[in-house]
Write a structure and sequence with these properties.
By secondary structure, the protein is an alpha/beta fold. The protein contains 12 helices and 10 strands.
C-alpha cells in the first residue's frame, strides 16, 4: 500500500469544504430513502459519505454484558506508560521515548500526525469549544455524575465534552469491544493509521459514527474494535489512562482528566438495546440498575426510541435518570410526562432528514414555535449545522414510580 497516496486521498475527502452549509447541501443530495425491511424498527440508508444508518440491534443471540466489573488489579508503571504512549501515538500526538518515538520519524506517522492535528484543531474550534461554553452555562446545575450514553458506539469525546465533571461514563452500541492498542496491533503501520483516519472521519466532520461502516471497519482494521478509538480520544482530550480491562462484551478504562478532579471511569458495552436484549436476565440492564446513572445523553440515535421495540431503554431513561440531554432522535416529546419533567429548549426544530421523515414530530414543531428558545452555536446529531440543530435538556422535578404518561404534555421553559 502506498501510504502517502492513501493519506492524501483521505485528506482530500475529509477537507473538501469547511463550510457547513455547503457540506449539508451535498450531504442531503446523497441521501436516498430505502424501504424499511421486515421486522426492523429503523430505516436503512444508502451509502453516502456521512450517512445516518439504522442502529437496530440484531434479533439473534443478543450480547450479554457482565453485571459488574471486578476490583481492578493495579497496572504496573511500565504497562501504564506503554498504554498511554500508544494512545498518544495513534492520536497523532508526540511520544518522547521508547520505540514509538523512533517510529514518529517515519513519513507514515508524520503525515498522519499533520493530518490529524489539522482536523482536530478545526473540530475542537467548531464543535468542542462551543459545547464547552454552552455546558458551562446550561448544564451547570444539572445532576450528571454518572452518564449513560445509549447508541453511542465509541464516541467518547462528545460525552466527555458535554459532561466534563462526570466520574462515570457508560457507553453502549453494537460495535465490538476489540483489544487495547498495542505495538503488535499497530502493524502494518500504514494500514493502522489509515484506518484510524477513516474511522474518525464522520465523527469529526458530521458529529457521529456511522454504525454500518463501523461494524465493518472495526473488524477489518489491525487495531480492531472500539477500545483503540476510545483510548485515542482520551489522549486527545488530555487525559491519562490509569487502568484498563476488557472482555468479549465489556471494556472499562480508568483515567485522569485534563481538568483534574477524581479518577474517571469509562465503560463500553457491546450490547443489544432492543426489548429482546434488555429483557429479563439482561446482564447490561442489571449493570445499569447497579450503576444508577443520574443523567443520559442521546444524539444521532436513529430515532429508535420512537419505536415500541425500544420501549425498555426509553422507559429506563425516563424513570431512572434525573437529567436527559438529547436531540430530537432520542425520547419522543410525547413520552415526557409534565408531572416529572421540565423541558429546556435550544436551537430550532427542523424536520428530520428524509431517511427519517416518518419520525417528524408535529407536537415538537408546535412547542418550538411557541417557545422563545436559546440559540445554539454548534450542530447536534444529524442536524450538524447550528442553524438547524436542536437540543432538549429535560430535568426531573418530581419522582415517579410509574411509567411515563404519554398523553400528558410536558411543561417547557428555557434558560
Amino acid at each position: 500500500m502506498n501510504f502517502q497516496f492513501t493519506v492524501a486521498a483521505i485528506a482530500l475527502a475529509l477537507f473538501v469544504s469547511p463550510e457547513m452549509k455547503a457540506q449539508q447541501t451535498e450531504y442531503l443530495r446523497t441521501v436516498t430513502v430505502t424501504p424499511t425491511p421486515a421486522k426492523r424498527t429503523a430505516p436503512a440508508a444508502s451509502k453516502p459519505v456521512a450517512k445516518p444508518v439504522s442502529k437496530t440491534a440484531p434479533k439473534t443471540s443478543p450480547a450479554r454484558a457482565v453485571v459488574a466489573a471486578p476490583t481492578p488489579v493495579p497496572m504496573t508503571a511500565a504497562a501504564r506508560g506503554e498504554l498511554n504512549n500508544i494512545s498518544q501515538f495513534i492520536a497523532g500526538l508526540p511520544v518522547t521515548s521508547g520505540s514509538l518515538a523512533a517510529m514518529e520519524q517515519t513519513p507514515q506517522w508524520t503525515n498522519f500526525a499533520a493530518s490529524m492535528n489539522s482536523r482536530w484543531k478545526r473540530f475542537d474550534a467548531n464543535r468542542l469549544q462551543p459545547i464547552r461554553v454552552w455546558t458551562e452555562t446550561e448544564l451547570r446545575h444539572a445532576s450528571a455524575n454518572r452518564v449513560f450514553y445509549p447508541f453511542s458506539g465509541p464516541d467518547a469525546i462528545y460525552v466527555m465534552t458535554m459532561f466534563p465533571n462526570a466520574t462515570t461514563y457508560i457507553l453502549c452500541g453494537l460495535e465490538p469491544v476489540g483489544d487495547l492498542p498495542s505495538m503488535e496491533k499497530l502493524q502494518p503501520l500504514d494500514a493502522s493509521l489509515g484506518w484510524l483516519q477513516a474511522s474518525m472521519k464522520t465523527l469529526v466532520e458530521a458529529g457521529y459514527f456511522v454504525t454500518k461502516d463501523m461494524s465493518v471497519e472495526l473488524k477489518m482494521s489491525p487495531l480492531q474494535g472500539t477500545m483503540p478509538l476510545m483510548c485515542m480520544m482520551i489522549a486527545r482530550s488530555g487525559g491519562h489512562i490509569t487502568w484498563a480491562r476488557r472482555d468479549a462484551t465489556h471494556a472499562e478504562i480508568r483515567f485522569m482528566a485534563a481538568n483534574g478532579g477524581p479518577e474517571r471511569t469509562m465503560h463500553y458495552f457491546s450490547a443489544d438495546l432492543s426489548n429482546g436484549g434488555m429483557g429479563k436476565g439482561s446482564g447490561f440492564l442489571n449493570f445499569l440498575r447497579q450503576a444508577r446513572p443520574d443523567a443520559a445523553y442521546v444524539k444521532s440515535a436513529s430515532y429508535l426510541m420512537h419505536e415500541a421495540e425500544f420501549s425498555a431503554v426509553r422507559n429506563f431513561l425516563l424513570t431512572q435518570c434525573s437529567t436527559i440531554v438529547q436531540d430530537d432522535s432520542g425520547v419522543p416529546l410525547r413520552d415526557f410526562d409534565a408531572r416529572r419533567w421540565k423541558l429546556h429548549l435550544y436551537g430550532t426544530y427542523d424536520a428530520p432528514l428524509d431517511i427519517f421523515a416518518k419520525y417528524n414530530q408535529p407536537d415538537m414543531a408546535e412547542l418550538y414555535s411557541k417557545t422563545a428558545t436559546v440559540p445554539l452555536t454548534f450542530g447536534a446529531g444529524y442536524h450538524w449545522s447550528a442553524k438547524t440543530a436542536n437540543l432538549i435538556v429535560a430535568t426531573a422535578h418530581a419522582p415517579t414510580n410509574s411509567q411515563p404518561a404519554a398523553a400528558t404534555p410536558a411543561s417547557h421553559t428555557h434558560r
